[in-house]
Amino acid sequence: MAALLARPWAITILFLSGCLLMVAVSAANDTEGLPRGGKIFGPQFGRRDVLVTCQDDKNNKKGCNAPCPHRCRNQCVGICPGCKTFCLCDLGIPGYVCGDPRFTGADGNNFYFHGKKDQDFCIVSDNGLHINAHFIGKHNPEKSRDFTWVQALGIIFGDNHQLYFGVEKTKTWDDSVDRLVITFDGENINIPTELNAKWIPTTVPSLSLTRMSATNGIIVDLRGVFTIIAKAVPITKKESDIHSYGVTPDDSLAHLDLSFKFHSLSDDVHGVLGQTYRPDYVNKMDVRKNMPVMGGADKYSSSSIFATDCAVARFRSNPEIAMVTEKADN
């Protein structure tokens, strides 16, 4: 059904802006969209926490080291000189979906879309591509809404291929234990828990899933269509205390932080995130607000994780998507 590859020689991974990935031994280092002096640091061999290192050879001064922030301790942006560190989700890079879902649209504006817990919503819908997100949630009686997070994605593409990846409900989070669940066209997929282990289906060789860390992190790439980086994370006690999320011992509210890079969307694309890529998109939210919120959840609601029946759906089966990308591999 698929090819499995492992590349133990890739010691360090750098995550580049816009979700492109390069192994550290490569000379490329795209910093588009990052602050000046910024570089994205990912998993490091032999270390649980990523260490940002800045050299100052120009001024003949001693360099510095700093760990990534605790809530993104295995992937963050480091800015030199000075070893300032930030989580990727705090930088407003287009295509990111993080936390209590905060989206960054293609126009660079951040907004919240809360949806509803235990329901599915179309976040991208286009000819030959449809992406639904499954939301989990926690009710807070002091709020008029549920707290929600993206727990899984259901992706339909080409000639109705179906790819699912999500994170299992987890009581006590241990990042050394893999909690990702992946299926393709109804079959469970098991990728070795090794850095850079890769899975490629024989039926769609232009699709690849690569572990960006041994556990709980994956890069999904459909050649010429999209690149998605997904990281499974819990809600920490500190986060829960600050935001009153109400984390309990029986549920760490594990969810996905995501980044999307699209290569061939049409001008008619829609969905919560997809519409921001339209050339005629007009942002009607008040971006001056601290927390601009996109409403209209009902028109983005899908009946199931693989349904293409949301009111703004644009999906039509398009086998040429897989055919074109497969030819590109030959």
Structural features, described:
Keywords: Signal. With 330 residues, the chain is mainly beta. It is built from 3 helices and 23 strands. The strands form 5 sheets. A 9-stranded antiparallel sheet has the order 1-18-19-20-21-22-9-10-11, with no helix packed on it. Residues 3-31 and 324-330 have low confidence and may be disordered.
What keywords describe this structure?
single chain; 330 residues; mainly beta; 7-stranded antiparallel sheet; 23 strands; disordered C terminus; Root_cap
In brief, what are we looking at here?
With 330 residues, the protein is mainly beta. The protein has 3 helices and 23 strands.
Any chance you could write out the topology, listing elements then pairs?
Elements: E1 2-5, E2 13-15, E3 21-23, E4 38-41, E5 51-56, E6 61-67, E7 76-79, E8 84-86, E9 96-98, E10 102-104, E11 110-112, E12 119-126, E13 129-139, E14 146-157, E15 161-167, E16 180-184, E17 187-188, E18 198-201, E19 207-211, E20 217-222, E21 226-233, H1 237-243, E22 255-262, H2 297-300, E23 301-302, H3 320-329
Antiparallel strand pairs: 1-18, 2-3, 4-7, 5-6, 7-8, 9-10, 9-22, 10-11, 12-13, 12-23, 13-14, 14-15, 15-16, 16-17, 18-19, 19-20, 20-21, 21-22
Keywords: Signal
Signal peptide: 1-28
Protein name: Root cap
